[in-house]
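B., you asked whether I could sanity-check this one before it goes into the benchmark set. Here's the sequence:
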Amino acid sequence: MNTFFAELYEVNIDNAMMEFARDVYMANDYLFIGLGAIFIPMILLAVFYRIIDPQPVKIFKWILTGVITLIAVYAFSFVWLYYHGMYIHIENEVNSAMSFTNIIAFRNTLFAILMVIVFSFIWNRTISINNSRNPL
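And here's what the prediction gave me:
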């Protein structure tokens, strides 16, 4: 699984950042941030469709929930990479490491957009009481 996510996140990473990519790979961090891109939207959208359950789904509420979900995924990815030991041995290359962290967190957010759409489609028809017959 770590290899699968590493191949997704390391597309077009330049040679200056490959040291950081290797460190993230060796710590299995790609697996955790990839799972975060799946589980955070799944949980937050389940809360939206089951607990909030707007009648019918108002596009503004859905967009707001999606934005909050994407911010949560970005924050999780950034914090996980930043505090999970990636910067412990890097003292003089913090700017390059920070750029790498931002790139990976942003890519994780892009993958989470797909998960928001997929889980919205699934939860809308399965766990939502008020929206089970809505086309979206």
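One thing to flag: Residues 2 and 26 are 9 Å apart (CA to CA). Otherwise nothing jumped out at me.
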